[in-house]
Amino acid sequence: MEISTLAAYHCLLLAWYFFVLYSLTHLRTEERPSEVFLYGGQWKYLTVLNLFLQAVFYGVSFLADVLRLIKELRCAKCVISSRDLLFSVLAFPVSTFVSISFWILYTYNRELVYPRSLDGVIPSWLNHTM
């Protein structure tokens, strides 16, 4: 894949994750059940932290692509190695764990991970993007 196409792809995904995080943090607060976001707000949930981690990863990926496009090879090598380390140590394991554990628990007992009281608070499209 060409570097410019890859840069556009990473920029698009970075914008998508920022949009999802923005939408998640600006939910209507008056409809929330009081016991759900009591301490730490939404940032105590691994799903939200995973969204933030994915946004950071795609930001670093976009930066690496831009540096490769402008031929800053010394900086690009450092950013690419940090991107690869971020992906292999945090982004892939955390997102895999979040996805697998959420859907296994959701199949077993939905109330453990996503109570029915949240259906009116979090839109279904936002739930599926997380």
Automatic annotation (TrEMBL):
Top-level taxon in the UniProt lineage: Eukaryota
GO CC annotation: endomembrane system; membrane
Membrane spanning stretches: 7-25, 45-64, 85-106
Family matches, as InterPro entries: ADTRP_AIG1
Main location: membrane
Keywords: Membrane, Transmembrane, Transmembrane helix
Recorded topology in the membrane: Multi-pass membrane protein
A Pfam family annotated for this UniProt entry: Far-17a_AIG1
Keyword DNA-binding (UniProt): no
Family in the record: Belongs to the AIG1 family.
Name of the protein described by the UniProt record: ADTRP protein
Source organism of this protein record: Odontophorus gujanensis
Biological classification of the source: Eukaryota, Metazoa, Chordata, Craniata, Vertebrata
